[in-house]
Design goal:
Layout (H helix, E strand, L loop, with lengths): L1 E10 L6 E14 L5 E5 L4 H20 L6 H5 L2 H14 L4 H18 L9 H12 L2 E2 L5 E2 L4 H20 L23 E2 L4 H13 L8 H14 L3 H5 L6 E2 L6 E4 L10 E4 L2 H20 L4 H4 L30 H12 L9 E2 L4 H12 L4 H8 L4 H7 L5 H9 L7 H11 L83 H9 L13
Parallel strand pairs: 6-10
Antiparallel strand pairs: 1-2, 2-3, 4-5, 7-8, 8-9
Helix pairs in contact: 3-4, 4-6, 5-6, 7-8, 7-12, 8-13, 13-14
Protein backbone atom coordinates (compact mmCIF):
# COMPACT_ATOMS: atom_id res chain seq x y z
CA UNK A 1 0.00 0.00 0.00
CA UNK A 2 1.54 3.29 -1.08
CA UNK A 3 0.80 6.84 -2.21
CA UNK A 4 1.98 8.17 -5.54
CA UNK A 5 1.18 10.68 -8.24
CA UNK A 6 0.35 9.46 -11.69
CA UNK A 7 2.58 10.70 -14.51
CA UNK A 8 1.59 11.39 -18.08
CA UNK A 9 3.23 12.74 -21.25
CA UNK A 10 2.25 16.01 -22.89
CA UNK A 11 3.65 18.16 -25.70
CA UNK A 12 5.14 21.47 -24.62
CA UNK A 13 3.47 24.17 -26.76
CA UNK A 14 6.53 26.42 -26.61
CA UNK A 15 9.24 23.91 -27.57
CA UNK A 16 7.12 21.22 -29.20
CA UNK A 17 8.85 18.48 -27.20
CA UNK A 18 7.20 15.73 -25.19
CA UNK A 19 7.59 16.25 -21.45
CA UNK A 20 6.48 14.13 -18.43
CA UNK A 21 4.19 15.70 -15.87
CA UNK A 22 2.52 14.57 -12.64
CA UNK A 23 -1.20 14.72 -11.84
CA UNK A 24 -2.48 17.07 -9.19
CA UNK A 25 -4.27 14.36 -7.19
CA UNK A 26 -2.54 11.74 -5.15
CA UNK A 27 -3.32 8.11 -5.95
CA UNK A 28 -3.14 5.03 -3.78
CA UNK A 29 -2.36 1.38 -4.31
CA UNK A 30 -3.71 -1.40 -2.07
CA UNK A 31 -4.94 -5.00 -2.10
CA UNK A 32 -8.72 -5.52 -1.91
CA UNK A 33 -10.51 -8.32 -0.05
CA UNK A 34 -9.89 -10.67 -3.03
CA UNK A 35 -6.12 -10.03 -2.98
CA UNK A 36 -6.14 -8.01 -6.20
CA UNK A 37 -4.07 -4.83 -6.42
CA UNK A 38 -6.24 -1.74 -6.88
CA UNK A 39 -5.22 1.78 -7.87
CA UNK A 40 -7.54 4.62 -6.82
CA UNK A 41 -7.41 8.38 -7.22
CA UNK A 42 -7.68 10.16 -3.86
CA UNK A 43 -7.22 13.93 -3.44
CA UNK A 44 -4.60 16.71 -3.91
CA UNK A 45 -3.71 16.82 -0.17
CA UNK A 46 -1.15 14.15 0.72
CA UNK A 47 -2.17 13.88 4.41
CA UNK A 48 -5.82 13.52 3.61
CA UNK A 49 -5.00 11.07 0.82
CA UNK A 50 -3.10 8.95 3.34
CA UNK A 51 -6.14 8.88 5.65
CA UNK A 52 -8.36 7.86 2.79
CA UNK A 53 -5.98 5.05 1.85
CA UNK A 54 -5.90 3.87 5.47
CA UNK A 55 -9.70 3.74 5.48
CA UNK A 56 -9.65 1.55 2.38
CA UNK A 57 -7.22 -0.77 4.14
CA UNK A 58 -9.47 -0.99 7.22
CA UNK A 59 -12.45 -1.76 4.99
CA UNK A 60 -10.45 -4.62 3.44
CA UNK A 61 -9.65 -5.97 6.87
CA UNK A 62 -13.32 -5.79 7.90
CA UNK A 63 -14.29 -7.74 4.78
CA UNK A 64 -11.77 -10.44 5.68
CA UNK A 65 -13.23 -10.57 9.20
CA UNK A 66 -16.83 -10.74 7.91
CA UNK A 67 -17.95 -7.49 9.59
CA UNK A 68 -18.09 -5.25 6.52
CA UNK A 69 -20.97 -2.81 6.07
CA UNK A 70 -22.99 -3.97 3.01
CA UNK A 71 -24.86 -0.67 2.73
CA UNK A 72 -21.88 1.67 2.67
CA UNK A 73 -21.62 1.88 -1.10
CA UNK A 74 -25.37 2.56 -1.48
CA UNK A 75 -25.31 5.28 1.15
CA UNK A 76 -22.77 7.20 -0.91
CA UNK A 77 -24.84 7.09 -4.07
CA UNK A 78 -27.25 9.98 -4.79
CA UNK A 79 -30.94 9.32 -4.40
CA UNK A 80 -31.55 10.05 -8.08
CA UNK A 81 -29.71 6.83 -8.97
CA UNK A 82 -31.85 4.84 -6.54
CA UNK A 83 -35.03 6.38 -7.99
CA UNK A 84 -33.91 5.41 -11.51
CA UNK A 85 -33.34 1.83 -10.31
CA UNK A 86 -36.78 1.82 -8.66
CA UNK A 87 -38.36 2.89 -11.97
CA UNK A 88 -36.79 -0.14 -13.67
CA UNK A 89 -38.10 -2.31 -10.84
CA UNK A 90 -41.67 -1.09 -11.41
CA UNK A 91 -41.40 -1.58 -15.15
CA UNK A 92 -40.05 -5.11 -14.65
CA UNK A 93 -43.22 -5.91 -12.68
CA UNK A 94 -45.23 -5.07 -15.83
CA UNK A 95 -46.93 -2.09 -14.28
CA UNK A 96 -48.64 0.24 -16.69
CA UNK A 97 -46.66 3.19 -18.02
CA UNK A 98 -49.13 5.64 -16.47
CA UNK A 99 -48.76 4.06 -13.03
CA UNK A 100 -44.96 4.08 -13.23
CA UNK A 101 -44.79 7.70 -14.38
CA UNK A 102 -47.26 8.86 -11.72
CA UNK A 103 -45.46 7.00 -8.93
CA UNK A 104 -42.00 8.31 -9.89
CA UNK A 105 -43.36 11.85 -10.20
CA UNK A 106 -44.70 11.71 -6.66
CA UNK A 107 -41.46 10.29 -5.28
CA UNK A 108 -39.34 12.94 -6.97
CA UNK A 109 -41.69 15.67 -5.74
CA UNK A 110 -41.28 14.54 -2.13
CA UNK A 111 -37.48 14.19 -2.44
CA UNK A 112 -37.07 17.63 -4.03
CA UNK A 113 -39.49 19.24 -1.59
CA UNK A 114 -37.64 17.81 1.41
CA UNK A 115 -34.19 18.59 -0.05
CA UNK A 116 -32.81 15.06 0.23
CA UNK A 117 -29.61 14.03 -1.54
CA UNK A 118 -28.60 10.74 0.09
CA UNK A 119 -30.38 7.86 1.82
CA UNK A 120 -29.17 9.15 5.18
CA UNK A 121 -31.13 12.38 4.59
CA UNK A 122 -34.54 10.70 4.71
CA UNK A 123 -36.43 11.96 7.75
CA UNK A 124 -40.08 11.23 8.56
CA UNK A 125 -40.64 14.70 10.04
CA UNK A 126 -39.64 16.31 6.75
CA UNK A 127 -42.21 14.24 4.83
CA UNK A 128 -45.01 15.08 7.27
CA UNK A 129 -44.15 18.78 7.21
CA UNK A 130 -43.96 18.96 3.40
CA UNK A 131 -47.28 17.18 2.94
CA UNK A 132 -48.93 19.50 5.48
CA UNK A 133 -47.67 22.52 3.52
CA UNK A 134 -49.01 21.09 0.28
CA UNK A 135 -52.48 20.68 1.79
CA UNK A 136 -52.67 24.36 2.67
CA UNK A 137 -54.34 26.78 0.19
CA UNK A 138 -51.88 28.67 -2.01
CA UNK A 139 -51.83 31.81 -4.14
CA UNK A 140 -51.29 31.51 -7.86
CA UNK A 141 -49.41 34.05 -9.97
CA UNK A 142 -52.61 36.04 -10.48
CA UNK A 143 -53.24 36.30 -6.74
CA UNK A 144 -56.17 33.88 -6.69
CA UNK A 145 -56.51 31.36 -3.88
CA UNK A 146 -55.93 27.81 -5.09
CA UNK A 147 -56.88 24.89 -2.85
CA UNK A 148 -54.01 22.66 -1.85
CA UNK A 149 -53.76 18.91 -2.04
CA UNK A 150 -56.69 16.93 -0.76
CA UNK A 151 -56.17 14.40 1.99
CA UNK A 152 -56.65 11.59 -0.54
CA UNK A 153 -53.94 13.02 -2.83
CA UNK A 154 -51.66 13.55 0.17
CA UNK A 155 -52.10 9.90 1.06
CA UNK A 156 -51.14 8.94 -2.50
CA UNK A 157 -47.85 10.85 -2.18
CA UNK A 158 -47.19 9.21 1.19
CA UNK A 159 -47.90 5.76 -0.23
CA UNK A 160 -45.47 6.35 -3.11
CA UNK A 161 -42.54 7.52 -0.94
CA UNK A 162 -43.11 4.76 1.62
CA UNK A 163 -43.14 2.16 -1.15
CA UNK A 164 -39.81 3.52 -2.38
CA UNK A 165 -38.36 3.36 1.14
CA UNK A 166 -39.51 -0.23 1.59
CA UNK A 167 -37.93 -1.18 -1.73
CA UNK A 168 -34.58 0.22 -0.53
CA UNK A 169 -34.69 -2.26 2.36
CA UNK A 170 -35.85 -5.21 0.24
CA UNK A 171 -33.14 -4.54 -2.37
CA UNK A 172 -30.45 -4.45 0.35
CA UNK A 173 -29.70 -0.79 -0.22
CA UNK A 174 -30.60 0.32 3.30
CA UNK A 175 -30.73 -1.36 6.67
CA UNK A 176 -34.09 0.14 7.66
CA UNK A 177 -36.75 2.56 6.55
CA UNK A 178 -37.33 5.58 8.80
CA UNK A 179 -40.74 6.22 7.15
CA UNK A 180 -42.39 3.02 8.36
CA UNK A 181 -44.35 4.62 11.19
CA UNK A 182 -45.95 7.35 9.03
CA UNK A 183 -49.66 6.61 8.61
CA UNK A 184 -52.29 7.80 6.19
CA UNK A 185 -54.76 10.50 7.16
CA UNK A 186 -58.52 10.07 7.31
CA UNK A 187 -59.90 11.41 4.07
CA UNK A 188 -63.59 11.11 4.94
CA UNK A 189 -63.74 14.72 6.16
CA UNK A 190 -62.02 16.12 3.04
CA UNK A 191 -63.77 14.59 0.03
CA UNK A 192 -63.21 16.84 -2.98
CA UNK A 193 -65.26 14.75 -5.42
CA UNK A 194 -68.22 12.64 -4.35
CA UNK A 195 -69.85 10.53 -7.04
CA UNK A 196 -73.46 9.47 -7.36
CA UNK A 197 -75.50 6.96 -9.36
CA UNK A 198 -78.48 7.47 -11.67
CA UNK A 199 -81.90 5.93 -11.46
CA UNK A 200 -83.11 3.58 -14.18
CA UNK A 201 -85.15 6.33 -15.84
CA UNK A 202 -82.25 8.80 -15.74
CA UNK A 203 -79.84 6.24 -17.16
CA UNK A 204 -82.28 5.52 -20.00
CA UNK A 205 -82.41 9.25 -20.81
CA UNK A 206 -78.60 9.32 -20.84
CA UNK A 207 -78.42 6.44 -23.33
CA UNK A 208 -80.98 8.08 -25.62
CA UNK A 209 -79.15 11.41 -25.53
CA UNK A 210 -75.87 9.71 -26.41
CA UNK A 211 -77.48 7.77 -29.27
CA UNK A 212 -79.02 10.90 -30.78
CA UNK A 213 -75.96 13.08 -30.19
CA UNK A 214 -73.10 14.01 -32.47
CA UNK A 215 -69.55 12.69 -32.35
CA UNK A 216 -67.59 13.64 -29.24
CA UNK A 217 -63.90 12.86 -28.61
CA UNK A 218 -63.79 10.69 -31.73
CA UNK A 219 -66.76 8.46 -30.79
CA UNK A 220 -70.13 8.58 -32.53
CA UNK A 221 -73.42 8.67 -30.66
CA UNK A 222 -74.10 4.96 -31.18
CA UNK A 223 -70.60 4.10 -29.98
CA UNK A 224 -71.01 6.18 -26.83
CA UNK A 225 -74.40 4.60 -26.13
CA UNK A 226 -72.90 1.11 -26.32
CA UNK A 227 -69.90 2.28 -24.28
CA UNK A 228 -72.10 3.55 -21.45
CA UNK A 229 -74.24 0.39 -21.55
CA UNK A 230 -71.26 -1.98 -21.34
CA UNK A 231 -69.60 0.09 -18.61
CA UNK A 232 -72.76 0.20 -16.48
CA UNK A 233 -73.36 -3.57 -16.78
CA UNK A 234 -69.76 -4.75 -16.35
CA UNK A 235 -68.10 -2.18 -14.10
CA UNK A 236 -65.00 -1.96 -16.31
CA UNK A 237 -62.69 1.04 -16.10
CA UNK A 238 -62.00 3.36 -19.03
CA UNK A 239 -58.61 1.82 -19.87
CA UNK A 240 -60.07 -1.69 -19.74
CA UNK A 241 -62.96 -0.69 -22.00
CA UNK A 242 -60.63 0.87 -24.56
CA UNK A 243 -58.79 -2.47 -24.92
CA UNK A 244 -61.87 -4.57 -25.79
CA UNK A 245 -62.19 -6.09 -29.26
CA UNK A 246 -64.60 -8.57 -30.79
CA UNK A 247 -62.33 -11.43 -29.72
CA UNK A 248 -62.64 -10.29 -26.10
CA UNK A 249 -66.23 -11.61 -26.01
CA UNK A 250 -67.48 -15.19 -26.13
CA UNK A 251 -71.17 -14.65 -26.75
CA UNK A 252 -71.84 -18.27 -27.74
CA UNK A 253 -70.82 -19.63 -24.33
CA UNK A 254 -73.29 -20.41 -21.59
CA UNK A 255 -73.22 -17.95 -19.91
CA UNK A 256 -71.70 -15.34 -22.27
CA UNK A 257 -68.36 -14.05 -21.03
CA UNK A 258 -65.84 -11.32 -21.68
CA UNK A 259 -62.10 -11.28 -20.99
CA UNK A 260 -59.86 -8.38 -19.94
CA UNK A 261 -56.18 -9.05 -20.56
CA UNK A 262 -53.71 -8.66 -17.70
CA UNK A 263 -51.85 -5.85 -19.47
CA UNK A 264 -54.92 -3.61 -19.25
CA UNK A 265 -56.40 -4.75 -15.93
CA UNK A 266 -55.61 -2.58 -12.93
CA UNK A 267 -54.69 -5.58 -10.79
CA UNK A 268 -52.51 -7.04 -13.58
CA UNK A 269 -54.52 -10.25 -13.93
CA UNK A 270 -56.47 -11.80 -16.77
CA UNK A 271 -60.12 -11.43 -15.77
CA UNK A 272 -63.05 -13.34 -17.24
CA UNK A 273 -66.44 -11.85 -16.34
CA UNK A 274 -70.06 -12.78 -17.14
CA UNK A 275 -71.99 -10.63 -19.59
CA UNK A 276 -75.56 -9.46 -18.97
CA UNK A 277 -78.07 -10.93 -21.47
CA UNK A 278 -79.06 -7.44 -22.66
CA UNK A 279 -75.43 -6.55 -23.37
CA UNK A 280 -74.80 -9.92 -25.01
CA UNK A 281 -77.79 -9.49 -27.33
CA UNK A 282 -76.77 -5.95 -28.26
CA UNK A 283 -73.18 -6.94 -28.96
CA UNK A 284 -74.22 -10.00 -30.99
CA UNK A 285 -76.34 -7.79 -33.24
CA UNK A 286 -73.49 -5.30 -33.63
CA UNK A 287 -70.92 -8.00 -34.43
CA UNK A 288 -73.25 -9.54 -37.04
CA UNK A 289 -73.69 -6.16 -38.73
CA UNK A 290 -69.95 -5.52 -38.77
CA UNK A 291 -69.33 -9.00 -40.20
CA UNK A 292 -71.82 -8.44 -43.02
CA UNK A 293 -70.14 -5.14 -43.75
CA UNK A 294 -66.73 -6.79 -43.94
CA UNK A 295 -68.04 -9.56 -46.18
CA UNK A 296 -69.55 -7.08 -48.59
CA UNK A 297 -66.37 -5.03 -48.83
CA UNK A 298 -63.82 -5.95 -51.55
CA UNK A 299 -60.78 -7.83 -50.28
CA UNK A 300 -57.30 -7.67 -51.76
CA UNK A 301 -56.12 -10.85 -53.45
CA UNK A 302 -53.07 -11.26 -51.27
CA UNK A 303 -55.29 -11.41 -48.20
CA UNK A 304 -58.13 -13.35 -49.81
CA UNK A 305 -56.13 -16.62 -49.77
CA UNK A 306 -55.58 -16.35 -46.02
CA UNK A 307 -59.28 -16.42 -45.24
CA UNK A 308 -60.58 -19.89 -44.55
CA UNK A 309 -63.81 -21.28 -45.93
CA UNK A 310 -66.43 -23.14 -43.95
CA UNK A 311 -68.05 -26.44 -44.90
CA UNK A 312 -70.75 -24.60 -46.87
CA UNK A 313 -68.21 -22.76 -48.98
CA UNK A 314 -68.68 -19.41 -47.22
CA UNK A 315 -65.91 -17.36 -45.72
CA UNK A 316 -65.37 -17.97 -42.06
CA UNK A 317 -66.09 -15.05 -39.75
CA UNK A 318 -62.86 -13.49 -38.47
CA UNK A 319 -63.12 -11.16 -35.45
CA UNK A 320 -62.14 -7.59 -36.09
CA UNK A 321 -58.88 -6.90 -34.22
CA UNK A 322 -59.67 -3.19 -33.97
CA UNK A 323 -60.93 -1.90 -30.59
CA UNK A 324 -64.65 -1.42 -30.23
CA UNK A 325 -64.07 2.16 -29.08
CA UNK A 326 -60.89 3.37 -30.83
CA UNK A 327 -59.03 6.58 -30.22
CA UNK A 328 -57.20 8.23 -27.35
CA UNK A 329 -60.25 9.14 -25.27
CA UNK A 330 -59.20 6.80 -22.44
CA UNK A 331 -55.50 7.64 -22.50
CA UNK A 332 -56.16 11.39 -22.50
CA UNK A 333 -58.90 11.03 -19.85
CA UNK A 334 -61.68 12.50 -22.00
CA UNK A 335 -64.39 10.30 -20.47
CA UNK A 336 -65.61 13.08 -18.17
CA UNK A 337 -65.89 15.45 -21.16
CA UNK A 338 -68.05 12.95 -23.06
CA UNK A 339 -70.23 12.34 -20.03
CA UNK A 340 -70.71 16.05 -19.37
CA UNK A 341 -71.82 16.60 -22.98
CA UNK A 342 -74.37 13.76 -22.95
CA UNK A 343 -75.71 14.66 -19.50
CA UNK A 344 -76.39 18.18 -20.69
CA UNK A 345 -78.20 16.81 -23.76
CA UNK A 346 -80.30 14.55 -21.52
CA UNK A 347 -81.23 17.41 -19.19
CA UNK A 348 -79.35 15.89 -16.25
CA UNK A 349 -76.92 17.86 -14.05
CA UNK A 350 -73.27 16.89 -13.95
CA UNK A 351 -73.21 17.99 -10.30
CA UNK A 352 -76.38 17.87 -8.22
CA UNK A 353 -77.42 20.16 -5.37
CA UNK A 354 -75.46 18.08 -2.83
CA UNK A 355 -72.23 18.39 -4.80
CA UNK A 356 -72.22 14.78 -6.05
CA UNK A 357 -71.02 14.41 -9.63
CA UNK A 358 -71.64 11.79 -12.30
CA UNK A 359 -68.53 11.42 -14.43
CA UNK A 360 -67.36 8.49 -16.53
CA UNK A 361 -65.95 6.58 -13.56
CA UNK A 362 -69.38 6.86 -11.93
CA UNK A 363 -70.55 4.17 -14.37
CA UNK A 364 -68.48 1.73 -12.34
CA UNK A 365 -70.31 2.88 -9.22
CA UNK A 366 -73.58 2.58 -11.18
CA UNK A 367 -72.81 -1.12 -11.78
CA UNK A 368 -71.98 -1.85 -8.14
CA UNK A 369 -74.97 0.15 -6.90
CA UNK A 370 -77.29 -1.84 -9.17
CA UNK A 371 -75.85 -5.02 -7.67
CA UNK A 372 -76.68 -3.72 -4.20
CA UNK A 373 -80.21 -2.77 -5.24
CA UNK A 374 -80.71 -6.26 -6.67
CA UNK A 375 -79.93 -7.91 -3.34
CA UNK A 376 -76.51 -9.29 -4.35
CA UNK A 377 -74.33 -10.22 -1.39
CA UNK A 378 -71.27 -8.14 -0.55
CA UNK A 379 -68.91 -11.02 -1.39
CA UNK A 380 -70.43 -11.42 -4.87
CA UNK A 381 -70.30 -7.67 -5.49
CA UNK A 382 -66.64 -7.60 -4.41
CA UNK A 383 -65.75 -10.42 -6.80
CA UNK A 384 -67.57 -8.79 -9.72
CA UNK A 385 -65.96 -5.42 -8.97
CA UNK A 386 -62.55 -7.13 -8.60
CA UNK A 387 -61.75 -5.32 -5.37
CA UNK A 388 -59.26 -6.64 -2.84
CA UNK A 389 -61.15 -5.12 0.09
CA UNK A 390 -64.94 -5.37 0.59
CA UNK A 391 -64.85 -2.04 2.46
CA UNK A 392 -63.93 -0.33 -0.79
CA UNK A 393 -66.91 -1.93 -2.50
CA UNK A 394 -69.38 -1.03 0.24
CA UNK A 395 -68.17 2.43 1.27
CA UNK A 396 -66.95 4.06 -1.94
CA UNK A 397 -68.76 2.44 -4.87
CA UNK A 398 -72.22 1.62 -3.50
CA UNK A 399 -74.47 4.71 -3.63
CA UNK A 400 -77.84 3.78 -2.15
CA UNK A 401 -80.46 6.52 -1.94
CA UNK A 402 -83.07 7.04 0.76
CA UNK A 403 -85.62 5.31 -1.48
CA UNK A 404 -83.41 2.20 -1.66
CA UNK A 405 -82.98 2.16 2.12
CA UNK A 406 -86.72 2.64 2.64
CA UNK A 407 -87.44 -0.32 0.37
CA UNK A 408 -84.97 -2.43 2.36
CA UNK A 409 -86.63 -1.51 5.67
CA UNK A 410 -90.10 -2.31 4.30
CA UNK A 411 -89.00 -5.90 3.62
CA UNK A 412 -88.51 -6.59 7.32
CA UNK A 413 -91.01 -9.13 8.75
CA UNK A 414 -93.61 -7.83 11.21
CA UNK A 415 -93.86 -9.49 14.67
CA UNK A 416 -96.45 -12.31 14.95
CA UNK A 417 -99.18 -12.31 17.58
CA UNK A 418 -99.97 -15.47 19.63
CA UNK A 419 -103.29 -15.82 17.75
CA UNK A 420 -101.52 -15.80 14.36
CA UNK A 421 -98.98 -18.35 15.62
CA UNK A 422 -101.78 -20.67 16.78
CA UNK A 423 -103.59 -20.43 13.45
CA UNK A 424 -100.37 -21.28 11.61
CA UNK A 425 -99.72 -24.32 13.82
CA UNK A 426 -103.28 -25.54 13.39
CA UNK A 427 -103.04 -25.19 9.60
CA UNK A 428 -99.86 -27.24 9.50
CA UNK A 429 -101.02 -29.81 12.06
CA UNK A 430 -98.25 -29.04 14.51
CA UNK A 431 -100.51 -27.91 17.35
CA UNK A 432 -101.59 -30.14 20.27
CA UNK A 433 -105.32 -29.46 19.83
CA UNK A 434 -107.87 -31.50 17.85
CA UNK A 435 -108.35 -35.26 17.55
CA UNK A 436 -105.56 -37.46 18.72
CA UNK A 437 -104.16 -39.90 16.21
CA UNK A 438 -103.11 -43.36 17.18
CA UNK A 439 -100.07 -44.97 15.66
CA UNK A 440 -98.99 -48.22 17.22
CA UNK A 441 -95.39 -49.15 17.15
CA UNK A 442 -94.30 -52.19 15.21
CA UNK A 443 -92.93 -54.04 18.26
CA UNK A 444 -93.59 -52.08 21.45
CA UNK A 445 -93.04 -55.01 23.77
CA UNK A 446 -89.51 -55.66 22.59
CA UNK A 447 -88.38 -53.03 25.05
CA UNK A 448 -89.75 -55.11 27.91
CA UNK A 449 -87.73 -57.89 29.47
CA UNK A 450 -89.64 -61.18 29.11
CA UNK A 451 -88.91 -63.91 31.62
CA UNK A 452 -88.53 -66.46 28.88
CA UNK A 453 -88.40 -66.61 25.13
CA UNK A 454 -91.88 -68.09 24.90
CA UNK A 455 -93.60 -65.36 26.91
CA UNK A 456 -96.93 -64.28 25.50
CA UNK A 457 -97.23 -61.12 23.42
CA UNK A 458 -100.15 -58.77 23.31
CA UNK A 459 -102.13 -58.24 20.13
CA UNK A 460 -105.65 -57.76 18.88
CA UNK A 461 -108.01 -60.64 19.62
CA UNK A 462 -109.22 -61.13 16.07
CA UNK A 463 -109.75 -59.38 12.79
CA UNK A 464 -113.27 -58.41 13.86
CA UNK A 465 -111.85 -56.48 16.80
CA UNK A 466 -109.76 -54.46 14.43
CA UNK A 467 -112.88 -52.54 13.42
CA UNK A 468 -113.34 -51.38 17.02
CA UNK A 469 -111.71 -48.29 18.36
CA UNK A 470 -108.11 -48.90 19.22
CA UNK A 471 -108.61 -47.73 22.82
CA UNK A 472 -111.00 -50.68 23.55
CA UNK A 473 -108.94 -53.49 22.08
CA UNK A 474 -108.17 -55.98 24.89
CA UNK A 475 -104.79 -57.63 25.04
CA UNK A 476 -104.76 -61.19 23.78
CA UNK A 477 -102.37 -63.87 24.88
CA UNK A 478 -101.29 -66.68 22.60
CA UNK A 479 -98.60 -69.27 22.56
CA UNK A 480 -95.36 -68.80 20.76
CA UNK A 481 -96.08 -69.10 17.10
CA UNK A 482 -94.63 -71.71 14.83
CA UNK A 483 -93.60 -71.49 11.25
CA UNK A 484 -96.89 -72.49 9.57
CA UNK A 485 -96.75 -70.35 6.46
CA UNK A 486 -97.24 -66.76 5.56
CA UNK A 487 -100.97 -66.71 6.40
CA UNK A 488 -100.03 -66.75 10.08
CA UNK A 489 -97.71 -63.78 9.76
CA UNK A 490 -99.11 -61.10 12.04
CA UNK A 491 -97.71 -58.10 13.70
CA UNK A 492 -98.65 -58.16 17.36
CA UNK A 493 -98.92 -54.72 18.71
CA UNK A 494 -100.65 -52.97 21.54
CA UNK A 495 -103.22 -50.74 19.95
CA UNK A 496 -103.22 -48.26 22.80
CA UNK A 497 -99.55 -47.41 22.30
CA UNK A 498 -99.14 -43.93 20.88
CA UNK A 499 -96.34 -42.44 18.82
CA UNK A 500 -95.60 -38.74 19.39
CA UNK A 501 -96.11 -36.44 16.46
CA UNK A 502 -93.06 -35.04 14.74
CA UNK A 503 -92.47 -32.73 11.82
CA UNK A 504 -94.99 -30.45 10.24
CA UNK A 505 -97.13 -33.10 8.49
CA UNK A 506 -100.16 -34.36 10.44
CA UNK A 507 -99.93 -38.01 11.51
CA UNK A 508 -102.69 -40.55 10.66
CA UNK A 509 -104.03 -43.46 12.72
CA UNK A 510 -102.48 -46.78 11.88
CA UNK A 511 -104.82 -49.74 12.33
CA UNK A 512 -104.23 -53.47 12.60
CA UNK A 513 -106.30 -54.23 9.53
CA UNK A 514 -103.68 -52.43 7.50
CA UNK A 515 -101.17 -55.04 8.56
CA UNK A 516 -103.68 -57.84 7.96
CA UNK A 517 -104.41 -56.68 4.42
CA UNK A 518 -100.69 -56.65 3.66
CA UNK A 519 -100.17 -60.10 5.18
CA UNK A 520 -103.15 -61.66 3.33
CA UNK A 521 -101.77 -60.42 0.04
CA UNK A 522 -98.83 -62.83 0.39
CA UNK A 523 -99.87 -66.34 -0.83
CA UNK A 524 -99.03 -69.26 1.48
CA UNK A 525 -96.18 -71.52 0.58
CA UNK A 526 -97.55 -75.00 -0.37
CA UNK A 527 -95.77 -78.21 -1.31
CA UNK A 528 -96.81 -80.45 -4.18
CA UNK A 529 -98.04 -84.02 -3.75
CA UNK A 530 -95.05 -85.51 -5.50
CA UNK A 531 -92.50 -83.41 -3.65
CA UNK A 532 -91.32 -79.91 -4.18
CA UNK A 533 -92.92 -78.02 -7.01
Amino acid sequence: MSLFKRTYWVVDPRTGERVRRKSENWSGKYRDDLGVWQRVTLCPDKTLAGLMLDELKRKTLRCHAGVADPFEAHRKRPLSEHVAAYRKHLEAKRNSADHVARTIQRIESVIDGCGWRRIADTKPAAVASWLADQREPMKDKDGNTVPGLSVASSNHYLTAIKGFARWLVKDRRSAETPLAHLSRLNGEDDIRRSRRSLSEAEFGRLLKAARDGKSVCGLTGAERELLYLVAAFTGLRARELSSLTESSFDLTANPPTMTVEAGYSKRRRRDTLPVHPLVAETLATLFAQRQRKRDSAPIALKFDADRKKSAHGQREAIPNPEPLWPGTWAKNRHGAEMMRHDLQAAGLPFEDERGDVFDFHSLRGQFITQLGRSGVSLVEAQKLARHCDPKLTANHYTHLSLHDLTSAVSRLAAPRTPHQEGETMKATGTDDSGSESLAPTVAPNLAQKPESRGEALTTAASSSDANCPAEHLPPVTRKPRKNRGSEHVREFVTASTRVPKVGVEPTHPLRIRDFESRASAIPPLRLGEGGTS
